[in-house]
Description:
By secondary structure, the chain is an alpha+beta fold. 33% of the residues lie in helices and 41% in strands.
Amino acid sequence: MTAATAPPEQPATDPADLADRARRGRTTISDRAVERIVGRVLDEAADSGAITRTMLGVPLRGRHRSRTDVRVDGEIVTVRTAISVTYPRPVRAVARRVRESVRGRVEELTGLSVRQVDIEVAELARSQDRTLA
């Protein structure tokens, strides 16, 4: 599904202004475009990240991008994503920051309204800069 955004509704009194609006048309923003924005925000978020790759429950080398599902319905966006949180960071605080970042960036870049951002914390990951004493 895609979203169509239009210029803000303003009363037009000049016929030339009405014709100009009709020529400009509409901008359509696809689910995939919003999903890429969300993916970028998740990549940049502190204390959270990608999920360990597994096959039949056995961990594999490397990590893959957080699972994300984005739905755009008109001017409304809903997001569902699964992330890892760096242990021992507070899960609720990290999820709240990620949710606010996703909402803010999507609304800023697309002009669409983000109704809901569901975050599943699928994994607690060890910090990469952890040192042994």
